[in-house]
Known about the structure:
Layout: H1 6-11, E1 20-21, H2 30-52, E2 65-67, E3 73-75, H3 82-100, H4 109-130, H5 133-136, H6 142-146, E4 149-150, H7 152-183, H8 189-194, E5 201-208, E6 211-217, E7 227-231, E8 234-238, E9 244-254, E10 257-266, E11 269-277, E12 279-282
Parallel strand pairs: 1-4
Antiparallel strand pairs: 2-3, 5-6, 5-9, 6-7, 7-12, 8-11, 9-10, 10-11
Amino acid sequence: MKYLTREWYYGNKDICLDLEVDTKAEKLSEEYYKELYNAKLNAFLEEEKEVSEMDYEPETWEDIQIMDDEGNIISAREVMSEEEFEALRQQLLEEEQNQQDVEIEPYDEEASTNDFLEMHQDEIEELKENLPKEILDEVADIRVLALGVATEKVKDLVDKYSQECEMKFEKPFNEYNKHWYSIADKVPAHIKENYNFHDCAILKMTKCGNDIVFELDNSGGFTNINKIIYKDAEILENNFVDGCYWIYDEMYLCDKGYECHIAVDGENGYDYITLQASDVIFE
């Protein structure tokens, strides 16, 4: 990968806090923390109870939202034929039926209370790890911040830092998109229309003569393709593990035809598969 690298992936800071402002967060106060904690816990328990008592209404999937190459959310009908859309719809309906067959756990106040405490402790550790020291130094009680409350100054600092992190995350996508549009006219339609395997599991990667064949579990993705055949292929970098997930991809033109970079997530974390091929065929 030239843009969506390991360094970029592991260097991302996922800061997404919807903070409330309260002047009481200016000082360390055990009384205020306990009061806030109990209020947030009770709201969480009430929501958990409501969910456990909710009547499930199955989705009909008359419209399906997907992400296009530019990161925009669009209707699948805009880019799929009627046959492709119906195949995807039937797949989602089957998954929905499988979810309905899973019994909803009854409300358990003690278990939910423990879950809330564990999530709260995890959030504290994540904030300590992800926020820069100059912001943490302005926080009187990290526990209060983990419960979503801050002073106006801290909220402004966190919002600014969050925006910076988002821009840093998006920058490689924007740079790669510029590259993609520079070569898109030279890539045949059958590749452009079908090369979309985000969140598909790669079950097998095998050598068949001069070809490399990927067998996919597409149930988590947005495609009905379950086999990719890279023609006259050569592996340049192979970090495949059984069942790893296709996360991102990049494509380049080369003397052989196409150089395909695939970022996968598996038991070894974020890794790469890189290969060259004269063509890419889909089944």
